[in-house]
């Protein structure tokens, strides 16, 4: 174990929406800050499904951290796996054994997929939480189309092939809609009709509706649109087991499926739960309204790693906008600590939420009043909001160009060149 001589005022664990926003604010104020992430880039999770369905290349959803902080030299970027956090001692240990310490510690390590103990899910299902998850899944889908194509070329009949998406929240709905659209519109451009006809997308969820957090009207719209795309819905149905060759549903149905995608839930990163702080719901850390961790002076927890109070007795949802705003707010509160002034309670500016279902089809609840939109207006709103959420001008421009290209050409085969091997 090496103790790094630490001249940092702040250590931030995790460079997602929350960590980057906090570091940006601290970098602007020239505060010596160490920003640690296992990746040398910040990934944009809301668009991972578009990488998996070949609508965007991976470079559009991952921005190098050194590029983000080039003009903020007080922020040092360290690419390393954090193996331990000691919240009481304010130390962070990384995978080469080095221990860093600083007066202020920000825990912004996000979440991991939660398989809820479903047998076989960890071994056989594809999660969608990182850029590598999305390229692996995208390559696996294309591999299935290629295999089917080879059988057609050899004169063989194709067996029906299912792709199962588990979890009908926004991630599952977006994923199911995008794959169904690929099968309907993109596959026929590259493969024979027999390939298109062989594939069916299934979407399963224990809930009785898709898109739990949305209004009934928007749920209905989403459900009908998915069905129009040919997605088979299994609502009120959980997945009991995942195997290499498919799933067993709670109603006893067995679906043969070479690809099972897990969009079924999240849990805070294990390292967060081992920081010496008793975790709250979902393994996340409960925080005060100023984003500090009760009983641990100088420790903040943000984004998907935290249960952030909404001021009305509940916690804020795990959204990019919540994480980004909390990161910037924590940056301000750390500056207040350094100046010896009062920290302030986090105020979330709720701009609503949205989900894409397919071309010209999305649902949105916009603004503080959650005005309902669906169809092409929500589709345009979704593109605009997600473009603005991207971390900087380069990915914003590139994503926009690729969306326009995708809209007019529907050619989605060129981006995925990854390895389909699951683990
Ligand atoms: C597939 C998907 C789709 C989504 N769609 C939307 C959407 O449409 N709209 C929306 O608002 N929100 C969406 N979300 C939620 C949103 O992405 C999250 O709420 C947001 O990313 C949380 O930000 P964060 O900074 O807390 O965590 P993250 O963005 O997850 O960042 C955490 C960072 O910590 C790093 N890290 C974790 N553990 C370690 C470790 N041990 N060592 C080193 N580094 C570590 C990770 O590499 C990562 O970079 C989606 C999430 C997913 C997974």
The radius of gyration computed from the alpha-carbon positions, rounded to a whole number of angstroms, is 22 Å
CATH topology of one domain: FAD/NAD(P)-binding domain
Number of continuous helical runs? 12
Tell me the number of strands. Answer: 26
The CATH H-level homologous superfamily of one domain: FAD/NAD(P)-binding domain
Portion of residues in helices? 25-40%
- The CATH architecture designation of one domain is 3-Layer(bba) Sandwich
- Principal-axes shape call: globular
Mean pLDDT: 91
Strand order of the largest sheet: 6-3-2-10-22
The percent range for strand residues is 15-25%
Low-pLDDT stretches = none
Bound molecules: flavin-adenine dinucleotide
How many strands, which pairing sense, and closed or not: the largest β-sheet? 5 strands, parallel
| CATH C-level label of one domain | Alpha Beta
GO molecular function, one term: oxidoreductase activity
Catalytic activity: a quinone + NADH + H(+) = a quinol + NAD(+)
Keywords: FAD, Flavoprotein, NAD, Oxidoreductase
Protein name: NADH:ubiquinone reductase (non-electrogenic)
């Amino acid at each position: 174990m090496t103790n790094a001589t630490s001249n940092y005022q702040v250590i931030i664990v995790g460079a997602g929406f929350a960590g980057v926003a906090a570091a940006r604010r601290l970098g602007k104020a020239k505060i010596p800050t160490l920003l640690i992430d296992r990746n040398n880039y910040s990934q944009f999770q809301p668009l991972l499904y578009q990488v998996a369905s070949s609508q965007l290349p991976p470079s559009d959803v991952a921005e190098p951290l050194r590029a983000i902080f080039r003009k903020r030299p007080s922020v040092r970027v360290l690419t390393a796996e954090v193996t331990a956090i000691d919240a009481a001692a304010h130390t962070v240990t990384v995978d080469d054994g080095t221990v860093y310490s600083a007066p202020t510690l920000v825990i912004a390590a996000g979440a991991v997929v939660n398989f809820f103990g479903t047998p076989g899910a960890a071994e056989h299902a594809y999660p969608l939480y990182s850029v590598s998850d999305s390229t692996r899944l995208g390559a696996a889908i294309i591999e299935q189309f290629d295999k089917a194509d080879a059988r057609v070329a050899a004169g063989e009949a194709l067996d029906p092939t299912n792709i199962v998406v588990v979890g009908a929240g926004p991630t599952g709905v977006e994923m199911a809609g995008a794959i169904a659209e690929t099968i309907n519109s993109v596959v026929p451009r590259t493969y024979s009709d027999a390939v298109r006809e062989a594939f069916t997308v299934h979407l399963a969820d224990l809930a009785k509706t898709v898109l739990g957090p949305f209004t009934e009207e928007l749920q209905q719209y989403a459900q009908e649109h998915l069905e129009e795309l040919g997605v088979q819905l299994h609502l009120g149905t959980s997945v009991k087991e995942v195997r290499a060759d498919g799933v067993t549903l709670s109603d006893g149905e067995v679906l043969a499926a070479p690809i099972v995608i897990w969009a079924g839930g999240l849990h805070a990163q294990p390292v967060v739960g081992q920081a010496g702080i008793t975790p709250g719901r979902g393994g996340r850390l409960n925080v005060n309204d100023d984003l500090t961790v009760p009983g641990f002076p100088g420790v903040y927890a943000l984004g998907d790693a935290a249960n952030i109070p909404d001021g009305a007795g509940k916690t804020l949802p795990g959204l990019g906008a919540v994480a980004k705003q909390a990161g910037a707010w924590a940056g301000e509160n750390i500056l207040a600590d350094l100046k010896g002034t009062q920290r302030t309670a986090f105020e979330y500016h709720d701009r609503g939420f949205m989900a894409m279902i397919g071309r010209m089809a999305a649902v949105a609840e916009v603004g503080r009043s959650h005005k309902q939109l669906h169809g092409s207006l929500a589709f345009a709103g979704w593109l605009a909001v997600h473009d603005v959420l991207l971390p900087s001008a380069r990915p914003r421009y590139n994503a926009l160009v690729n969306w326009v290209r995708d809209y007019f050409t529907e050619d989605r085969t060129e981006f995925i060149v990854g390895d389909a091997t699951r683990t």
